[in-house]
Write a structure and sequence with these properties.
Elements (H helix, E strand, L loop, with lengths): L25 E3 L4 E3 H13 L15 H31 L4 H7 L4 H8 L4
Antiparallel strand pairs: 1-2
Helix pairs in contact: 3-4
Protein name: ClpX-type ZB domain-containing protein
InterPro entries: Znf_CLPX-like (IPR059188), Znf_CppX_C4 (IPR010603), Znf_CppX_C4_sf (IPR038366)
GO molecular function, one term: zinc ion binding
Length: 121
């Protein structure tokens, strides 16, 4: 089965999890996506930060409960990246790439690539 087109993929923002249908623009990265709304928020944060202000990781101020609430979002992004990787592997296969070349690109054996991505048992 050929890889799904971008229009067919369930693409969500890796930061806020909004689907592509709920935002004006979606920017693709290596296995991740960011919507125009999150880009805007990032721009605001960067514009407000001065040279003298050190970067402070917001995770340091999170409580255990906040971290536990955050875990499912991280798992969702991980699943999205894995799904995206499967699509890209299928695109490579659609264009004639061998399992050996795909495995080499991913730092695994041909057999491991086939087992992980072929969908066959």
């Amino acid at each position: 089965m050929p890889a799904p087109s971008l229009a067919e993929q369930d693409i969500r923002c890796s930061f806020c999890s909004k689907p592509k249908t709920d935002v004006a623009k979606m920017i693709a990265g290596a296995g991740v996506h960011i919507c125009n709304e999150c880009v805007g928020l990032c721009a605001e944060i960067l514009a407000a930060q001065t040279v003298e202000t050190p970067e402070i990781s917001y995770t340091e101020s999170m409580t255990v409960e906040q971290i536990l609430e955050f875990l499912p979002r991280i798992a969702e992004v991980s699943a999205q990246v894995e799904d995206n990787l499967r699509v890209w592997v299928q695109r490579a296969r659609d264009r004639g790439a061998t399992w050996a070349r795909i495995g080499a690109a991913l730092g695994m054996t041909r057999q491991s690539a086939w087992e992980r991505f072929s969908g066959e048992e």
